[in-house]
């Protein structure tokens, strides 16, 4: 049975129009993106195959061209469309931050960081530099790999903050394992960076830990 033969209330497009995108499952959202299936399989079937193969939306987003195209019904056309959708979402969220919602809209910050870091297979330390009105000046990947006090250099972050004339910074790093629990090293590193930035009158506004689509805030948990 094709999707067109399903009851109207169960078709992904009609369901979205009736109840909103949040009411759809991951497979239903992917099915709308895929639009059509292949012989013997609906778009929803293909979406479920993708999710079973990669395990999550984040891992689909992070898939390399070759491994994505190896899935039944996929190819360069779908791969480029998916990458374009992800990049448009990143840019839309970044626009919100540039307009000054870094503190006023924690959701925008979380969504931006989850989309930027949540899919990465390696640890990455990113710094958001903001002005006195909390408008985003720049978002830069500063360090990559296992993060410790010795691999993240405070002086480099201080130099960047001064170069951007930043009034504040927001730290973010990901845990490829998917956990958002800060390690002891994460907490020590944050204190070290706070002390260094205090010397040049730059505030540390928050430190986010990203694990897949989950994001933990140091500030909200009293860790700053």
Explained architecture:
By secondary structure, the chain is α+β, with helices and mostly antiparallel strands. It contains nine helices and five strands. A five-stranded mixed sheet has the order 2-1-3-4-5, with helices on both faces. Helix 8 (154-163) crosses helix 9 (184-198). The longest helix has 23 residues, at 76-98. The protein starts with 11 loop residues before the first helix and ends in a 7-residue tail after the last strand.
Sketch the topology as an H/E string, one letter per element. Answer: HHHHHHHEEHEHEE
Q: Could you tell me the number of beta strands?
A: 5
Largest sheet: 5 strands, mixed
Strand content: 15-25%
The low-confidence parts are none
Short structural description:
The chain is α+β, with helices and mostly antiparallel strands and about 220 residues long.
Question: What is this structure's SSE topology?
Answer:
Layout: H1 12-19, H2 26-34, H3 43-54, H4 57-62, H5 65-69, H6 76-98, H7 106-117, E1 124-130, E2 136-144, H8 154-163, E3 168-174, H9 184-198, E4 203-211, E5 214-217
Helix pairs in contact: 2-3, 6-7, 8-9
What key attributes describe this structure?
224 residues; alpha+beta; 5-stranded mixed sheet; 9 helices; 5 strands; elongated
């Amino acid at each position: 049975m094709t999707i067109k033969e399903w009851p109207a209330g169960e078709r992904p497009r009609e369901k979205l129009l009736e109840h909103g995108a949040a009411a759809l499952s991951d497979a239903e959202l992917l099915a709308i993106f895929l639009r059509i299936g292949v012989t013997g399989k609906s778009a929803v079937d293909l979406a479920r195959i993708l999710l079973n193969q990669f395990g999550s939306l984040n891992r689909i987003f992070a898939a390399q061209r070759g491994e994505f195209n190896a899935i039944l019904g996929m190819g360069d056309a779908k791969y480029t469309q998916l990458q374009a959708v992800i990049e448009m979402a990143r840019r839309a969220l970044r626009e919100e931050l540039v307009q000054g919602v870094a503190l006023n809209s924690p959701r925008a910050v979380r969504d931006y960081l989850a989309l930027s870091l949540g899919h990465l297979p390696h640890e990455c330390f990113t710094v958001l530099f903001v002005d006195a009105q909390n408008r985003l000046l720049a978002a830069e990947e500063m360090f990559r790999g296992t993060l410790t006090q010795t691999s993240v250099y405070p002086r480099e972050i201080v130099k960047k903050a001064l170069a951007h004339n930043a009034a504040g910074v927001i730290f973010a790093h990901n845990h490829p394992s998917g956990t958002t629990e800060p390690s002891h090293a994460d907490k020590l590193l944050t204190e070290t960076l706070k002390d260094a930035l205090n010397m040049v009158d730059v505030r540390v506004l928050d430190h986010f830990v990203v694990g897949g689509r989950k994001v933990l805030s140091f500030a909200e948990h009293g860790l700053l």
